[in-house]
Specification:
With about 230 residues, this protein is of the alpha/beta class. Helix content is about 40%, strand content about 15%. It contains 9 helices and 8 strands. Strand 1, helix 2 and strand 2 form a beta-alpha-beta unit. It is globular and about 45 Å long. The two termini are about 30 Å apart. The relative contact order is 0.16. The structure holds pyridoxal-5'-phosphate.
Length: about 230
């Protein structure tokens, strides 16, 4: 079972603790050291808090809402910004410029729009396809059976670079169930690579299930609460 420890009260200690948890999980599950990147999920967190995290060395930040993300990116610039919220088609123009990554593509329409709207002067936008593992109609994400077709279409878009898969599995405290869901995402990625893709990214694992995600091959964990404390 994963080791549970109490959450420290200050940001630098929490960041250190999360990094230790990641490093220990890499060791325990025979993952190469530093093969898992920490993406700080900063929705609802202020510019000052994000700036403080950056001063402690955190570079990767994930945002869910454009109206919230835009002022943060404008003020804090020199960090790596990942869009991790649902992508609305009418917001793609605003997403396509400031972000380096989008984790949550689940249909061709938004991929085509992001591709068309990515500035020609920018590097290709790194993208992951979000998979609806639990098949809940309330959840976004492409269904696993539709993944190969979507991956092929997205991979053909010149201003996007298809990097991998992302999922938000149903929450459970059962470690084996957590692992099972993440293993399914990994198998989906391996299947796409057998079809000729060269995907290197599994964006999976949050505060409550990052160890299970690392055990199953996560390369980016998206952590909010364990880094910043509980959300109001
Ligand atoms: C908020 C959020 C996270 C982080 O969740 P925590 O449980 O606070 O770690 C990760 N991924 C997405 C898509 C989120 O919206």
């Amino acid at each position: 079972m994963p080791h549970q420890s109490r959450m420290p009260t200050d940001l630098s200690a929490r960041l250190r603790q999360v990094k230790n948890t990641i490093a220990r999980a890499e060791q325990r599950y025979k993952r190469p050291a530093e093969s898992v990147s920490l993406l700080a999920a900063s929705k609802g967190r202020s510019v000052d808090v994000i700036r403080a995290a950056a001063q402690y060395g955190q570079r990767l930040f994930g945002e869910n809402y454009m109206q919230e993300a835009e002022p943060k990116i404008a003020l804090l610039g020199d960090l790596q910004w990942h869009y991790i919220g649902p992508v609305q088609a009418n917001k793609t123009g605003r997403i396509a410029r400031p972000f380096e990554w989008v984790h949550s593509i689940d249909r061709l329409k938004v991929a085509r729009r992001l591709d068309a709207q990515r500035p020609a002067s920018s590097a290709p936008l790194n993208v992951c396809l979000q998979v609806n593992l639990s098949r809940e109609s309330s959840k976004s994400g492409v269904l696993p059976e539709n993944l190969p077709a979507l991956a092929e279409q997205v991979a053909s878009l010149a201003s996007l670079r298809l990097r991998g898969l992302m999922a938000l599995p149903a929450l459970t405290v059962d470690f084996d169930q957590q692992r099972h869901a993440f293993a399914t995402l990994r198998l989906n990625l391996e299947d796409l690579n057998r079809r000729g893709h060269r995907l290197d990214t599994l964006s999976m694992g949050m505060s409550a299930d990052l160890e299970a995600a690392i055990a199953e091959g996560a390369t980016i964990v998206r952590i909010g609460t364990a880094v910043f404390g509980r959300r109001n």
